[in-house]
Specification:
- The chain is mainly alpha-helical.
- It has one domain (82-292, 346-562): MFS general substrate transporter like domains (Growth Hormone, Chain: A).
- It is built from 21 helices and no strands.
- It has helices spanning 16-20, 41-48, 65-71, 87-113, 115-121, 127-130, 132-155, 157-177, 183-193, 195-211, 216-244, 249-269, 284-290, 293-316, 321-344, 357-387, 392-416, 424-443, 454-480, 486-515, 522-576.
- Helix 4 packs across helix 11 (216-244), helix 7 (132-155) runs parallel beside helix 9 (183-193) and helix 11 runs antiparallel to helix 12 (249-269).
- The longest helix has 55 residues, at 522-576.
């Protein structure tokens, strides 16, 4: 919900100045229509950003602007798209790119708010089945991000964003039309709907990274990108609640119409940065190899199967052979994926050299925190609507503090991560502390307590966990991996955030159905909800413990480095004497 992005960027490398210098002066920001009315920015990219004959690389790709800039360093100052735009066009550009983040959370929050209304139209009331409408969406958002970034590198970030918006629009339309069919079609549409934001998010960040030079202006734009998330979720809740009083499918159809409009506007407004790589493949077999399609397919299958097993188990039970078989098959594909990445792939989707102990620490902490968030968000809504009987429109008013304090948290995090203030590891620990306190507050909340007591407090605290953890994790991973893996580091954080939301709901649902005594009375239902929330408490505490271990490790590493530097300095002084 608050996947705040900072300078480090996306899977295609919004991080760092080296990636941002990809664009050439002929394909950025400027309005080419006056001089070349029949030529689009995509055409210009393909024709004018072509590599020089001697610029081919050993890995089967050809770079463009990077090598051009190396040969002509005087071009560096003229390649930033944002610097060539008029103010109105730059505002439109930033708005259209931020719509990727806004729409992602719009679709998430809007569905959660009318979950029971949607379920009632299909005769579905079990929380385990209803959770699929949220978990299925987050599953595909998290699963497809890595590969979407690779596609953007190969085929162009603008083109992939247009495809993403179009796909998102199409399956939002189908999700609404499923009212004429069945719950199964609606879940299917939600799962495929999630591929849209998975395509848009990494490529949106890549376009921002290619448009702005490093500096305060770029940091503010990335902060805006992150700050749209809480607002998108709350506005999605509001629109869905308003349409629920007429007919809930219109919430999805309005989103479909809006996304189609965004896609059309993006076609005319967004610049088309040069691609990071150019395929030299002459056959489909070479395309498969160069894009690492075997790794992408096995990795996606592994994530989908494991997640499906955990989210289906609360519905059918762990004794169901299909659930066990799916889980085992998922882990088999995990093994196949890592074998392909380590031994087979020429250009791995997930290079193993990008991994180390520090990366593992951070991803584990992020997964604990965001699984906690998914559990918190889903079950707070269950308590508010199912136990307290709050209408969707009033629930929007209750959740408004999330948008306000999410924006505050985004700005505060940018300040805390500034020079000589707090290290990213400390900020990450603060975030996990916020996740832990926020879910403990709601898990221990009396059923009929006033809104202004514990519920209001947790709505203030949780946004700090969301908007502090994402940028801190991105910076830590950026510092932990090599320069060529900067985009992968940021993309991994995006993947873990969204996938953990979905997987966390599966964990919580399993606990819920085992402690609610069948959910035959309101007391038993509430007992199940509390059990699920306490599962979230356990995950957040685990993340906080890992943060503590990471802080200790970082402290000793810095101290050892300082001692070594002092020793070298002392030796040099002695040598001078």
């Amino acid at each position: 919900m608050a996947e705040m992005a900072v300078n480090q960027g996306s899977s295609s490398g919004a991080a760092g100045g080296d990636v941002d210098r990809r664009s050439t002066p002929t394909l950025i920001g400027t309005d080419h229509t006056a001089e070349q009315p029949s030529t689009t920015t995509d055409d210009i990219t393909d024709k004018e950003a072509a590599p020089l004959p001697d610029n081919s690389s050993d890995d089967g790709y050809e770079t463009t602007a990077d090598q051009d800039l190396a040969a002509h360093p005087s071009n560096v100052e003229s390649v930033w798209a944002a610097e060539t735009m008029s103010l109105p066009r730059e505002v439109a550009f930033v708005v259209l790119v931020c719509m990727a983040q806004f729409a992602t959370q719009f679709a998430f929050g809007g569905t959660v708010n009318i979950l029971h209304i949607i379920g009632a139209s299909y005769g579905i009331t079990e929380p385990g089945k209803l959770s699929w409408l949220v978990a299925g969406y987050s599953l595909t958002v998290g699963t497809f991000i890595l590969f979407s970034g690779r596609l953007g590198d190969a085929f162009g970030y603008k083109k992939m964003m247009l495809i993403g918006y179009g796909w998102f629009s199409l399956w939002s339309l189908v999700a609404g039309l499923s009212v004429y069919s069945s719950y199964v079609l609606h879940v299917f549409a939600r799962v495929l709907q999630g591929i849209g934001p998975a395509i848009c998010l990494p490529n949106a960040l890549a376009i921002l990274g290619a448009a702005y030079p490093p500096g305060h202006r770029k940091a503010m734009v990335f902060s805006l990108f992150g700050a749209t998330a809480p607002g998108g979720s709350v506005i999605g809740m509001l629109v869905a609640a308003a349409w629920s009083y007429a007919w809930w499918p219109w919430a999805f159809w309005c989103m479909s119409i809006g996304l189609a409009g965004v896609a059309v506007a993006a076609y005319y407004v967004l610049p088309a940065p040069a691609r990071k790589m150019r395929l030299k493949a002459t056959s489909w077999r070479e395309v498969v190899v160069e894009l690492d399609l075997p790794g992408a397919v096995t990795g996606i299958l592994a994530l989908v199967l494991i997640n499906f097993a955990w989210n289906q188990a609360p519905i059918t039970g762990w004794k169901n052979p299909a659930v066990i078989a799916t889980l085992i098959l998922g882990f088999v594909f995990v093994g196949v994926f890592f074998y392909i990445e380590m031994r087979v792939a020429k250009r791995p989707l997930l290079p193993m050299e990008a991994f180390n102990g520090e990366v593992g620490f951070v991803l584990a902490v992020v997964s604990c925190g965001w699984a906690t968030f998914g559990i918190w968000f889903f079950y707070v809504y269950q308590i508010v609507q199912e136990i307290r009987g709050v209408e969707p429109l009033l629930a929007v008013a209750w959740f408004c503090p999330v948008a306000v304090f999410g924006a505050i948290a985004a700005v505060l995090t940018g300040y805390l991560l500034g020079p000589a203030r707090f290290s990213p590891a400390v900020v990450m620990t603060m975030a996990l502390a916020a996740f832990t306190v926020g879910i403990v507050v709601v898990a221990t909340m009396p059923v009929r307590q006033t809104y202004w007591a514990q519920l209001f407090v947790c709505l203030i605290i949780m946004p700090f966990g969301m908007d502090m953890s994402f940028p801190a994790a991105t910076i830590i991973l950026s510092n932990a991996v090599k320069k060529e893996h900067q985009g992968i580091a940021a993309s991994l954080v995006n993947t873990v955030v969204n996938y953990s939301i979905s997987l966390g709901l599966g964990f919580a649902g399993t606990v819920e159905v085992h402690v609610n005594n069948g959910g035959k009375t309101p007391e038993d239902v509430m007992k199940g909800f509390r059990g699920a929330l306490y599962m979230g408490v356990g995950l957040s505490v685990l993340g906080l413990v890992l943060c503590g271990a990471f802080l200790v490790k970082t402290h000793w590493h810095d101290r050892r480095k300082r001692d070594q530097e002092e020793g070298v300095e002392g030796g040099e002084k002695n040598a001078q004497r």
